[in-house]
Each structure stands twice: as structure tokens, then as C-alpha cells.
Amino acid sequence: MAKPAQGAKYRGSIHDFPGFDPNQDAEALYTAMKGFGSDKEAILDIITSRSNRQRQEVCQSYKSLYGKDLIDNLKYELTGKFERLIVGLMRPPAYCDAKEIKDAISGIGTDEKCLIEILASRTNEQMHQLVAAYKDAYERDLEADIIGDTSGHFQKMLVVLLQGTREEDDVVSEDLVQQDVQDLYEAGELKWGTDEAQFIYILGNRSKQHLRLVFDEYLKTTGKPIESSIRGELSGDFEKLMLAVVKCIRSTPEYFAERLFKAMKGLGTRDNTLIRIMVSRSELDMLDIREIFRTKYEKSLYSMIKNDTSGEYKKTLLKLCGGDDDAAGQFFPEAAQVAYQMWELSAVARVELKGTVRPANDFNPDADAKALRKAMKGLGTDEDTIIDIITHRSNAQRQQIRQTFKSHFGRDLMADLKSEISGDLARLILGLMMPPAHYDAKQLKKAMEGAGTDEKALIEILATRTNAEIRAINEAYKEDYHKSLEDAISSDTSGHFRRILISLATGNREEGGENLDQAREDAQVAAEILEIADTPSGDKTSLETRFMTILCTRSYPHLRRVFQEFIKMTNYDVEHTIKKEMSGDVRDAFVAIVQSVKNMPLFFADKLYKSMKGAGTDEKTLTRIMVSRSEIDLLNIRREFIEKYDKSLHQAIEGDTSGDFLKALLALCGGED
């Protein structure tokens, strides 16, 4: 069994079996495979409850007792995915990696994803063991085989990683961090073309601790994460490899959690990936992977495996997983600490928010008004011209066009557009033509009128707007509907949900920085109301009011600190705890606030993804977000979308919409990532 670093806690899901007797296990396996058919339950039960070291002893005992090779016998008796999984568990880790690499580069074509996964994630020691195992098993030089099967910068980085010479010193030089940041910036963003050698040298050799600080400083210096620069400057398999290296530097367990999720999501399962990761991480960091998986994807790894596989293959994978975190109803403390570390970074990061729609150069409202009039005049409508003009002008410029249109033609542009276009395209174009505050006011009005209330729309708008935006919405609502927004909310909602919305609708969120002492007090209130504090105090009604006040009125920087202190205090993540302890609209509102505080572009990326996944499209949500965020942070949303869902927002829209509505959405999206 792999030994954790001195003082570190063992994080594997497979442990040494107490009272282990290799001869007894060898006899039991022989019996399970003797005669007609095989006892697969007995085989999987023994092999998944022994550590790899113990399995090697069982192999030796089997050969001594029966003069046969246990792995050969297992291959003969078992078939398919179950066979690959069991045989993988029986090999020493380095030999298992060597077999995966050999398969990846054998025959026609190369499995680059397998090469990237293994070589980007292994430690120096694991890399040295892999090279030796490959030489022993195949009597070939691994470096030479990789050079013979790959090319270019991708090949160079693989060879660098294969050396297993990454620095391991925890002492970091601040001067060298700054120098590496500057070198990476000059090699990519500031250079015509890209100096790939600098990326290879720094990312392939510096220590993990050093590189984490480089990534933090790079974000502060350039206003963008290193991943964005890699996507913009590199391409193909080399880009994918470098992104994998960065992910493993940040958090190897998170990298594998993401790989496992992608292996099982959608139609079909990438069984080779699933098997490789479950085997290779079962004695290293499976518990960490499980924790991060539960946090990131809001479901347990166990439940996803259970729903995506079958038979003895499923049973074996579930044994390797080691437990169902959903069934336990508990959030792993270690995952909360990972979240805490991420938020520590986000608290100091200042990412520039960027929209995709900017003011048009050489803007001429007179020419635009005439072009729009021509597009709507006579028989038929020129939708392409309408889309092209309106999606490539800022909102302020659109208001000038409206005024010019009325001055020239004595007509209301909005009324003309309503009469000429219809459906989803009309809702999108008319939304773009409205001033933002009036658009939001209209969306809130629609959410509350008629039978039923669209609570999700109310939450999305009120939980994400700034104080200035909220005040403008209040004024627009009063002007357009002759009623205060607060009165409308009061008459259409009730209970704690109403109190939350009214509090958000006042636009009185503090705008200062964090206050550490206050943050600790606020974290204690959160712990008490969420019923995980050791010593609850105060009556529940008072605590509920205080908790609502904290989430609805404290500044974003302060709330980030509250969430961090909450984790330090309880070892729980506030978002997950709210989801577990609360219900209904109150839970949804609080979760939206927390997610917005953590990462607002990611909040909207999730909303966009959900609006387009599955059968049917939620065009209202899709339209509302694309309109409202196009000049604020849609570029950031695009980056979060591709990072989380492994496809671009452009691709998702293209696959889920059609016609002129599609054209307009893609124009707002602003490009393919």
C-alpha cells in the first residue's frame, strides 16, 4: 500500500486487510476459478479488500501453491470491462501505468488523453518507477517510444515530464516567482507568436508550491488566469497537456474528479478512463477525489458509478470508491478545506470582468436608424440586418438609435420591431433595445404576473445585481408599472422568502472590505442557524433574521471571509450545508447568493448550461442571461462554461437553438472558445 507522506493522513479508499493470509486468499481464488464457470463475487470481494502490496503476495502464493500465474488465470476466467478492472488491480501501480502507456502508443493512432492523464499527474518517484517498469515489462525505452509516437511541443513537454525532475523544495523564492510570471507573460500575451519553450521549462520543472504562487501572481498581474493564456496562446494536444499540468499543480484530486465526471456524463461511458483512475487512485487520494466530486457536481461519485455501470464491474468500482457520500448525508471536511484554499486565492484575485458587446467604433446612429427602417419596410423583413446592427452596438448606442429613429421617421422603433419579428428572436432583440434597468424591471414583472410565480427569475436578478443596479431597477419599475417593486414582491410572495427578496430589493448591501472580527461572528451565526455549531445560543427567530441580514447586506469581500471562517470553524462548506439543512425557495435564494459571492460568472455559466441541457430549452432564462450579461461579464461566463463543461458556450448554443434566434445569440456570445 502506498505510504502517505510523513505526518500526512492516508487518503486512499483501500487499506491493508487485517489478518491477511496470502495462502488462504490464493486457495480461495483457485476455488473460485475451478470447474465450470467462476465465482465472480468471491474474486471481486477478495481483490478489492486487499491492498496492492497484499495482492502481490497473493500472486506469489498462488504460483507457489499451483504453479500457475494468477493474472493469466484471471484473464482466462473473466471477460470484458470486469476483466480489465480486476487485472489492473492485480498489477503493481507502476506496471499498470506502463501497460496503459504501452496500449496508448501501440497500433494505429495514439491515445493522447491517456498519455496526458498519466504523465501530467504522477510524482517524480512514480515517474521513475514507471520508466523502470516499462523497461522491465517490454524491454523498451519509454522515452524513445514516446518520441517515436508523438511530435512537436507536445512531445517535448511529455519528455520533460518523463524525466521526473520537478523541483520538490517547499521554500519558494518571491523573486523567482515574479521572474517566472514576467517570463510567462512575455512568452505569451506580450509576444507576437508564442515562446513555447518558456512554458515548457517553467511548467515542467518548477515545484508545485512555487507554481501555485506563480499562478496567483500571474492572475493579479495580468487580470486573467494562466489557463486563459494557455488557451489563447497554445493549441491542440500541447494545449490540453499544459492545461492538465496546471490542473494537477492546483489540485490533483480535483483533476481526477473532473476526469471521472466527464468519463460518465452524457451518453456512453469512457470505461478505460474510469478503470484507469479508479485503480490508480484507490490507494492514493480516492477520498479527496470523492469529496471534491461531491462538492463540484452536487452528487456522489458512488451514485454516479451506480447509475452508469452494471454487474460485477459496477460492484468492483463501488468497492474501490469506498462509500456513498450522498447516503451518509455528510460533507467531507477535507473538501471544505480544499474549498477554503480556493477561496483564499479568490479573495486576493482581481479578475477583470469583460462583456462581449462593446461600443461600435465609428458609430453613426443616423445610418443605423435608416438601415433598420429599410430592413423593416415593404414586403418581408431583413432579420440579418436587424441582428447585425443591434447585437454589435452597446446599450447606450441602441438608445441613441431609438431616439434618432423617432426623430427621422416619427415612429417608435420598439413598436416597429414588435410588428416585424416574433417569438424567441423578438424577445431577445426587444430585450437588447431596452435600458438594462427597465429590462430587469420587466423580467421581474413577468415573473410575478399571472398564475404562479417564477421564483427562479426573481432570485437570479435580485441576488446578482449591484446596489446601483437595484436602485435603477426600483426606479424603472415605479416608472413603468406605477407601483413600487417592494409592494409587488410583498403581494406575490410570502414568509422568509419574501423577507429575503425585499431585503435584496432595497439595494443596501455594504460596499466596503472585510472585517475579520465581524466575519468570525457572522460565521458563528451561520453555524448556529445551520445547526452545526457546538454551542448554539440565542432563539431561532433572532438567528434566522441575523443570518438573512448577513447574506443580504454584507459586502462580497466580507462574505468571502465569512465563508472561509465558517469552514475553519466547522469544517463544512456553507453552500453544501444550506442545501442540506434548508429547503424550497429560501434555500434556493441563499444558495444563489453564496454562489454569486464565490464566483458570479460561474453562477451564470451553470444557469446557462441548465437552460440548454436535456430535452427542450429554457429560452426565457437563456435570453435573460445573454441580454443582461452581454456588456458586463459574458466573456468571463464563457471561460467558466468551457472550464466546467468541457465545451464552449458557442457550441452549446449552436447545438440547442436554431434560425435567427441562434444567429443573434451567437453574435452576443462573441466568439468560439
From TrEMBL:
Keywords: Acetylation, Annexin, Calcium, Calcium/phospholipid-binding, Cytoplasm, Phosphoprotein, Repeat. One of its GO terms (molecular function) is phosphatidylserine binding. InterPro entries: Annexin, Annexin_repeat, Annexin_repeat_CS, Annexin_sf, ANX6. One of its GO terms (biological process) is negative regulation of sequestering of calcium ion. It comes from the Eukaryota. It is found in: Cytoplasm; Melanosome. SMART domains: ANX (SM00335). GO terms for cellular component: late endosome membrane; lysosomal membrane; melanosome; mitochondrion; nucleus; plasma membrane. A pair of annexin repeats may form one binding site for calcium and phospholipid. May associate with CD21. May regulate the release of Ca(2+) from intracellular stores. Belongs to the annexin family. This is Annexin. It comes from Cebus imitator.
